[in-house]
Design brief:
- The protein is of the alpha+beta class.
- It has helices at 2-39, 285-295; strands spanning 50-56, 62-68, 72-77, 83-88, 134-141, 146-152, 158-164, 167-174, 183-185, 197-201, 204-209, 214-216, 222-228, 234-239, 247-252, 255-260, 262-263, 266-267, 273-280.
- The chain has a single domain (2-295), classed as Beta-galactosidase, Chain A, domain 5.
- Helices cover 16% and strands 36% of the residues.
- The strands form 4 sheets. The protein has a 9-stranded antiparallel β-sheet, covered by helices on one side.
- A hairpin with a 5-residue loop joins strand 1 and strand 2.
- The longest helix is centred in the first third of the chain and has 38 residues, at 2-39.
Length: 306
């Protein structure tokens, strides 16, 4: 009897917690949309990059750098050094992270870039039960560019964030000697995983259903994009430097798992590299490809600190 009651209480608590997270996301989406409507004719949509400080309400009010552009709002966890939310111009979050222990694919595993996992620490992930802290310094701030550098608590890893009007870049600027990492997009295209989601990439122009997996080295320039047939945009991730390492995509219940330098649980990246994430306001393959290849600086060299 007591175990039955405890089970019912636990189930009720889980439902309440999930409902609260869902409500927080809806309130934020309403706020973003309302603000956009109120500012029409009163103030222009940001054409550059605006940095502010606050919390991510859908991530248990995690202290965050909030970077706003005309096409997206990024919530960068001040302690974990990873993105907890990427919100499009309609107020929809394409990551959907929240830190509730045990939520797994429904929240705590999500984010970008989720790079350092059981490799001389756990870094560059929005804070969950296993994330270790990093320290952050804003090293550049202007209307055209915001740069924030995170250094891991053990001093062995450094991640550099560069925000521009049309995209966000993450550079693994320092790698702990003898260790490896990956860069992951673990999220929810269009706000949730469902049968209307799809993806495509640099391998060919075929649109794939969201549950179709991929394993192999993406041809350069390396990129993939995720969408939902009910939305007019896609979210893309790209690697600036082409390589011969395996990449991988598969769908978990409730989220995507795409990784540069990842295959079958193995990590392959062992030197500094740069990556981009952002939105393209189109779902047409040719248009998306052209936008990505024109805005992402596919190159052999790494950006420097400002």
């Amino acid at each position: 009897m007591e175990s039955s009651v405890a089970s019912e209480v636990a189930g009720f608590s889980s439902k309440v917690s999930h409902s609260m997270v869902h409500s927080a996301r809806m309130l934020r989406a309403i706020a973003v949309t309302t603000l956009a409507l109120l500012t029409v004719g009163c103030a222009p949509t940001p054409s550059g990059v605006v940095l502010s400080h606050g919390v991510d309400s859908s991530a248990d009010d995690a202290p965050s750098f909030i970077i706003t552009t005309a096409v997206a709002t990024f919530y960068l966890d001040k302690q974990g050094g990873g993105l907890s939310s990427i919100v499009d111009r309609d107020g929809v979050d394409w990551l959907g992270f929240h830190p509730r222990a045990g939520s797994g694919w429904k929240g705590e595993y999500r984010g970008f870039p989720n790079s350092v996992h059981r490799q001389d620490g756990n870094y560059f992930h929005a804070v969950n039960a296993t994330t270790e802290p990093s320290s952050a310094v804003v090293t550049a701030q202007s209307d055209a560019h915001v740069q924030i550098v995170f250094t891991s608590a053990n001093g062995k890893w450094q991640g550099q964030w560069d925000f521009y009007p049309d995209r966000c870049d993450f550079t693994m600027a320092q790698v702990s000697e003898g260790y490896r990492y990956w860069v992951l997009y673990e999220g929810v295209p269009g706000g949730e995983i469902n049968e209307t989601d799809y993806w495509f990439g640099s391998m060919d122009n075929r649109v794939r259903e969201i549950h179709e997996p991929f394993s192999g080295d993406l041809p350069g320039p390396e990129w993939v994009a995720f969408g939902d047939s009910n939305t007019p945009r896609v979210l893309y991730v790209a690697q600036h430097q082409d390589d011969n390492h395996l990449d991988e995509y598969y769908m978990r219940p409730y989220m995507t798992v795409f990784g540069f330098g990842r295959n079958d649980g193995n990590k392959y990246l062992s030197e500094p590299r740069s990556f981009s994430i952002g939105f393209v306001e189109s779902t047409n393959y040719s248009t998306v490809k052209e936008a990505i290849t024109s805005r992402v600086p596919f190159q052999a060299t790494l950006p420097s600190l400002k």
